[in-house]
Amino acid sequence: MDQNQCYAFGFEPETDAFAECMMGLHQQRAAAQANSNLYRQAQLAEQNRRREARQDLYKFASLQRSGDPRFPVCGASSDGGMDRRTLTWYGPNCRAR
């Protein structure tokens, strides 16, 4: 495809200009791929940040609901997770044990 593109630009195969055209297209594609990778990394970082913020909110809500009988005790089947520091479960609709 690159060869066709360089030929369409008017460069003759097996010339220095043609080789430079091919190299330029390769460098452009490599730069675009690098930018794409950076964008994906930024998206993943944002997703992780949001997930951690949501977990922190669940932990806070669980601590506030501690002792409130309207909310069930958190467990492995709860929507949330486990705080590995305290080994306690947390979730959006749970109270601490």
List keywords for this structure.
97 residues
Q: What this model shows, in words?
A:
- This protein has 97 residues and is mainly α.
- Helices cover 58% and strands 6% of the residues.
- It has a two-stranded antiparallel sheet.
- Helix 1 packs across helix 2.
SSE topology string? HHEE
Low-confidence stretches: none
* Whole-angstrom Rg: 27 Å
Tell me, rounded to a whole number, the average pLDDT. Answer: 85
Query: Widest sheet: strand order?
Result: 1-2
Q: Structural class, from secondary structure content?
A: mainly alpha
Provide the β-strand percentage band.
5-15%
Quaternary: single chain
Report the principal-axis shape. Answer: rod-shaped
User: Count the helices. How many?
Assistant: 2
Largest sheet: 2 strands, antiparallel
The N- and C-terminal alpha carbons lie at a distance of 64 Å
Write down how many β-strands occur, each being a DSSP E stretch of 2 or more residues.
2
The total number of structural domains is 1
> Considering DSSP H and I runs of 4 or more, what fraction of the residues is helical?
55-70%
Q: What's the structural blueprint in terms of helices and strands?
A:
Elements: H1 2-8, H2 16-64, E1 81-83, E2 88-90
Antiparallel strand pairs: 1-2
Helix pairs in contact: 1-2
